[in-house]
Amino acid sequence: MLNRSSRMAIKSFLALVFIFYNCANGHGMQAKAKPDPSDAHATARWLVSQNTWGIISTISIDLQGAPFGNVISYSDGPPGQGTGIPYFYLTLLDPTPRDLQKDSRCSLTVSEFPLGTCSGIDPENPTCSKLTLTGKMEALNMSGPVADFASQALFSKHSEMMDWPTDHNFQFFKLNIENIFLIDWFGGPKPLSVAEYLQPGRLVLSS
Amino acid sequence: MLNRSSRMAIKSFLALVFIFYNCANGHGMQAKAKPDPSDAHATARWLVSQNTWGIISTISIDLQGAPFGNVISYSDGPPGQGTGIPYFYLTLLDPTPRDLQKDSRCSLTVSEFPLGTCSGIDPENPTCSKLTLTGKMEALNMSGPVADFASQALFSKHSEMMDWPTDHNFQFFKLNIENIFLIDWFGGPKPLSVAEYLQPGRLVLSS
User: Fold this and answer.
1) Which of A8, A130, A185, B176 could form a disulfide with B71 if both were Cys (CB 3.0 to 4.6 A apart)?
2) Cβ pair A71:B123 closer than 8 A
3) With 80 as the cut, is the pLDDT of residue A14 above it?
4) Within B35-187, where are the H helices?
């Protein structure tokens, strides 16, 4: 029969095991299960819905046309309403939207690795999935139904954006996707159609 | 006087507290303290030494000159010997080095966010630091002192690379840095000289 101090220590032990497991699994308490890699469209949508930031690559004005990547937050929809289309909240004080004013071509790149589900696999290993959406960035009106959706999408996942300085003139943008590059297994990029990727039926992943 | 079961449970408890603390701090067992944001060069070097992957942006051949970002592992040196210069291990089966054969201009972008030290701050918030190194990628000889250093740098942090298929003809590359873009506080990008960034005296961060 264990005494009181033993029981308390054991309970603490079990509690920490639970916490450690979820922490070690990259905050697995919130992650939704990764689809089977053979379902490329679902995997692509999972990557977009689970990540909240990525790198936007643009043609740099400041660097004479060199390719330039920048860390940018995004959202493809409020939790449970992911669309596969990334929305952004950008200020012209940042080089990325200035580049896009001149040349709207860009890509958004995200990785499975920061989600914590690559489990010891190297970020460059093809089984640690990665996705690049390429297309043209569109600046959105700041009022109307599209703006309403953009604000719900972004502010539900990036609540501090609502307090960002108004004199920075942040604006909503969305990426009109023209090409999808996905690596989620050996054998090279998976063939992916944008139309199938955007299907509403892909809304299987609440995030 | 505690009995044996109590002592064992308490030791387990303390061990898990230690593990949890480091896990919750973004695998803090290995993370070195972030420099003061006012020391831009040290912050830039810290970001490069602490991250092990980033996004390389290139001008895409496949996408008719669009900017294209790709998830790539890297290392700036073996632990304790960081140089600030990123080294890569790439195969021409991947679009990135094919793009670089035609146009060697590229950038490497890394974020503080996956290090776990942004502590609830949004990835796009300027106090969650981010860095983009732009320059020209150089393919390295696969033998000699530079190759030796590249292999030590990469394989010490990405040990599975040593087992990647030889018929993929992986090759070492390094980025010859021409421009540094760092955001680590409010007020826009920090002015940074490449020469000062590369100073050996910056080797203060063992990683």
Assistant:
1) A130
2) yes
3) no
4) 40-50, 95-102, 145-157
Inter-chain contact A13–B17, Cβ cutoff 8 Å? Answer: no
pTM of this structure: 0.85
What gap in Å lies between CA B169 and CA A112, rounded to an integer? 25
B13-34 pLDDT, tens per residue?
Answer: 554 544 444 444 333 334 589 9
Contact A85, A177 (CB under 8 A): yes
* Beta-bridge mates of residue B139: B173
Q: CA A90, CA A103: separation in Å to the nearest integer?
A: 16
Query: In 10 A of CB B205, how many CB atoms?
Result: 20
pLDDT digits (tens, 9 = 90+) for A162-176: 999 999 999 999 999
Hey, where are the domains in chain B?
4-198
Question: What gap in Å lies between CA A62 and CA A66, rounded to an integer?
Answer: 9
Query: How crowded is the C-beta side of A178, counted as CA atoms within 13 Å?
Result: 15
For residues A134 and A181, the answer to whether their CB atoms sit within 8 Å is yes
Measured at the alpha carbon of residue A69, what is the angle toward residues A65 and A75, in degrees to the nearest 5? Answer: 130
Residue B196 identity (one-letter amino acid): E
Which CATH fold would you assign to the domain B4-198? Answer: Pnp Oxidase; Chain A (2.30.110)
> B71 has which bridge partners?
B55
Taking contacts as CB-CB distances below 8 angstroms, the residues of chain A near B72 are: 123-124
Q: What is the mean pLDDT of residues B73-100?
A: 97
Answer for the pair A59, A24: CB distance below 8 angstroms, yes or no: no
Give the minimum alpha-carbon distance from A146 to chain B in angstroms, rounded to a whole number.
Answer: 22
